[in-house]
Amino acid sequence: MSVEGKWNLKVSTPMGEQTPVLILNVSGNECSGSFAGAQGAADFSGGSIEGDNVSFSLEVEAMGQKIKLECTATIDGDKISGELKSTMSPAQFSGERA
User: Fold this and answer.
1) pTM score > 0.90 for this model?
2) What's the CATH number where 59 sits?
3) What is the longest distance spanned by two Cα atoms in the chain?
4) Tens of pLDDT, residue by residue, the chain (98 residues)
């Protein structure tokens, strides 16, 4: 099944559960898209896809500062799970295709 599409995420953070929306666009083995949540939205490009595994990085603004997020995820049908790494702390997430 394609990794492309809109994904509703649940991210466990030190500030509680966040519910951003991830949009993945696919071209060959590369992905781009957007990540939007309560702290704002950011577009990204240059991500990679290997089978059901996706990885990308982006910058978001949170608490008045820019934070780089590195995302790794695995897609299993209509489910997604993975980790967001930042300078603050890693956060686990899961979600479903919208």
Assistant:
1) yes
2) 2.40.128.120
3) 38
4) 589 999 999 999 877 899 999 999 999 999 999 999 887 789 999 999 999 999 999 998 777 888 889 999 999 999 999 999 987 789 999 999 99
